[in-house]
Design goal:
Chain lengths: 312, 338
């Protein structure tokens, strides 16, 4: 040890005093405010029959689209910081129905999960699936909620009855006024759609003659050549309608992500477009102060003699 | 991570505990003495130097444990409160979109905005929920198939936002009262009896139910000891749930009267409030509020409680004599060298 004895005594006393002050600060220094970015969002989940199709890969098995949508929503909620707000809604027929306006995610996690677990095709009040109209109603209702949430719309994009390109329902609001993301669900192959009975049990599949294959309104338009054109009749089958959802999302100014692999994909998209709020959180510095005190004390007692040669 | 019944934010710090032994393995503060035999044998100094080492170890150990940030994990405690367990059954049918308590014929057909029955119900229910701190609320989704959307919860935020959402958008074309009543009872199934159980129905009409459904409902409601409160939002001012002498002939067979009759025959506590105006609605809510203060077992979620302070206090208590002794020796050494 190269330091003289009085110097060592002096340094030790100084370090001890500093350590004491640090411990006192750790105990009594009030927590400081730190800001985290949080956002409000509204998850609307498609509960129409086509969501019963089991063509989504989850781990090493195929699960149905609705279960995947619920699990994905759960993971997204889990990856949000406390202070974020999430609301839940479902879509069936031609409208979205908001079931809970945004609540804080940490305090209400249990209730959010309870409600999410109740989402079943039996909740549907009609058997059609008009995706774009439902999306419009979701946007309109999101505007009534304050602070205005970012809409997350989870669907396979299957329009039933089908919509003709020229007869698309009009979007009368400003695109992008309400930010949002459409999450596309489902595989790319056309597969039969299970049919559910009133108890929600699957009973066979939708047959080719049970669904409409053309936009009803197109038949009243003049172009009979196009109408009678021999096109494949595939509306009783379902796949993820990516190009349709891309078109729709452009129309309303939403982002579109198809079959995201992790909740982070969605969170990142949302952060890009959402109005985020600064949420002050109390942050206690005690860990840092106690660590400094700890390091100081360890410094005093480190066996220096093992590293340096004794000079005296 | 859980350890010793506590939750540790940085459990790896515990592995550093052997650092607390450092004071016993070094002689940084020893003075070089030419001949040790010259040093007088002093039991007091021996005790002091020993206790200083103990104190140093205590400080290092407790600081390590404090940095590991222990906390008592989130837990539920039971306490006795006053209140009830209430399942809300809000009519979501189209007619609830109409204006509430209108007197003119024209307003009857106008599209109602803020004064629609559904919004009025929202306003008063919100106020009601806020007034009742101990109650547990559940919410039944009232549609073709009703669903127990929000099982009984203590979270006021969750129930208030569910009520709020119920006021958005338009009503549903088809609702099923019998199914909703059955589901409300299911909400209490497998639940220990904690206190008064209430099904609070807010609707502007009734529905005819099958005999089978009525039998099932009667059986369930009796079994589970439920009370029914019905806030009936009157469409026509003159109409009453109870038949009166100068009754309009049109009223006698209305479904709401049938439902009222049925509720009376179940044999469970039942009260109907006929609200024809905002004042009457508010009064009904107040009356329910006053009546329902029985003893209720309340489960409360105690959030996770940081307990690093315990160890910081321990560190402080050990550090005080340690630091003072070192300051004292510094003072002594300086005097000796003057």
């Amino acid at each position: 040890m190269s330091l003289s004895y009085p110097k060592r005594i002096f340094l030790t006393a100084l370090v001890m005093l500093l350590g004491l002050l640090m411990i006192m600060a750790a105990l009594w220094l009030p927590p400081i405010d730190r800001e985290v970015e949080v956002m409000d969002s509204l998850f609307i989940i498609d509960i129409t029959d086509s969501m019963n199709v089991e063509d989504v890969r989850f781990g090493n098995k195929n699960i149905n689209r609705l279960d995947w949508a619920k699990e994905y929503t759960r993971q997204a909620i889990l990856s949000m910081p406390c202070g974020s707000h999430v609301g839940l809604g479902i879509f069936s027929e031609a409208r979205s129905l908001i079931l809970m306006t945004p609540v804080e995610v940490c305090a209400n996690y249990h209730d959010l999960m309870q409600m999410l677990s109740q989402f079943h095709p039996t909740m549907a009040w009609a058997r059609s699936s008009e995706v774009s109209k439902a999306l419009y109603t979701a946007i309109r209702q999101a505007k009534e909620i304050s602070p205005q949430p970012t809409v997350v719309f989870l669907t396979d994009g299957h329009e039933a009855p089908p919509v003709h390109e020229t007869l698309f329902p009009k979007f009368t609001d400003t695109p992008g006024e309400v930010p949002g993301v459409i999450v596309g669900i489902g595989g790319s192959d056309l597969v039969p759609i299970p049919k559910t009975n009133e108890f929600g049990e699957i009973e066979g599949y939708w047959g080719i003659n049970e669904v409409m294959h053309r936009d009803v309104y197109a038949s009243s338009r003049g172009d009979s050549a196009e109408l009678n054109e021999n096109r494949p009749r595939t509306e009783h089958l379902s796949s993820q309608k990516k190009s349709h959802m891309e078109t729709v999302s452009k129309r309303v100014g939403f982002e579109f992500i198809s079959s995201p692999t992790s909740a982070q994909n969605l969170i990142r998209e949302m952060q890009k477009i959402s109005v985020t709020r600064q949420q002050p959180v109390k942050y206690d510095l005690f860990v840092w102060l106690a660590s400094i005190a700890l390091i100081l004390l360890v410094l005093v007692f480190l066996p220096y003699s093992l590293f340096t040669k004794q000079h005296d | 991570m859980m350890l010793f019944g506590l939750e540790w934010a940085y459990p790896l710090m515990i592995l550093l505990l052997p650092l607390a032994l450092l004071p016993w393995f070094n002689n940084n503060l020893d003075k070089t003495v030419a001949w040790t035999a010259l040093v007088p044998h002093d039991p007091l100094s021996r005790t002091i130097s020993l206790s200083l080492k103990v104190l140093s170890s205590v400080v290092i150990a407790s600081l390590l444990l404090a940095v590991a940030s222990p906390a008592i994990p989130e837990r539920t405690v039971q306490r006795f409160g006053e209140g009830a367990e209430i399942v809300l059954l809000l009519d979501r049918s189209r007619s609830m979109d109409d204006a509430f308590a209108v007197t003119t014929q024209a307003a009857n057909y106008a599209v109602a905005g803020d004064n629609s029955k559904r919004r009025v119900a929202r306003t008063y229910l919100t106020e009601f929920v806020k007034k009742r701190p101990d109650d547990r609320f559940g919410f039944v989704f009232f549609s073709t198939n009703s669903i127990n959307l929000l099982p009984l919860t203590y979270s006021k935020e969750a129930i208030l936002n569910t009520i709020e959402a119920n006021s958005l958008g338009k009503g549903l074309s088809d609702t099923n009262l019998a199914d909703a009543l059955m589901n409300s009872a299911i909400m209490f199934e497998d639940q220990p009896y904690r206190g008064a159980r209430i099904v609070l129905l807010v609707s502007d009409g009734g529905q005819l139910m099958t005999d089978e459904a009525m039998e099932l409902i009667t059986q369930r409601y009796k079994e589970m000891n439920l009370s029914i409160y019905w806030i009936y939002l009157k469409a026509r001012q003159g109409m009453t749930l109870e038949p009166s002498e100068n009754d309009n002939i049109l009223y006698t067979d209305l479904p709401e009267r049938k439902v009222h009759e049925f509720f009376k025959t179940i044999g469970v506590p039942y009260r109907a409030f006929e609200a024809g105006s905002l004042e009457e609605f508010a009064q009904a809510m107040d009356e329910i509020d006053e009546q329902q203060y029985q003893t209720l077992i309340v489960e409360e979620l105690v959030p996770h409680e940081p307990k690093a302070d315990w160890f910081l206090w321990l560190a402080l208590l050990a550090m005080l004599p340690l630091a003072s002794s070192h300051l004292y020796s510094y003072w002594g050494v300086r005097k000796a060298h003057e």
